[in-house]
Amino acid sequence: xxxxxxxxxxxxxxxxxxxxxxxxxxxxxxxxxxxxxxxxxxxxxxxxxxxxxxxxxxxxxxxxxxxxxxxxxxxxxxxxxxxxxxxxxxxxxxxxxxxxxxxxxxxxxxxxxxxxxxxxxxxxxxxxxxxxxxxxxxxxxxxxxxxxxxxxxxxxxxxxxxxxxxxxxxxxxxxxxxxxxxxxxxxxxxxxxxxxxxxxxx
Length: 202
Hints:
3-stranded antiparallel sheet, 5-stranded mixed sheet, alpha+beta
């Protein structure tokens, strides 16, 4: 259901439009739109999350790129196809000719919220758990490192996540202000000081 050439992740195919059977509400939606065989962005994002959680990080990042609205507006031809703002999430992308690739129902906070969670929590692996921050990144192979400047109330944590050298042995290494921490979480303290966090992963 991943249609790379069309830049969408289809919910199912074909749409309910010719069958005598009636699945209910879904059949009342135009063919290839939202729940009736189009890209329903919530479900598409959950697909990317599922691949990430299964350990298929490269595929998850590929699907994230496919869902990223900016990739629907890089050329005049893409803009003419997408027809909506390429800087906000669309709730759906049409999947049936003559409107394949057209976005619909933009500024949809549900899809935007799930996309944020996919990127920040699932792919970059930054999760707030009370007064602790869990770091469990899933880096694409092409990234040697990345940085996050995380604000906890009035305190900033500068987080660097980098790959271990290929010939190194052992598990991931996490440190806070130069002190090694065991596990995947760092304690957060609102002391209005800047803190340095380093995580080295395989």
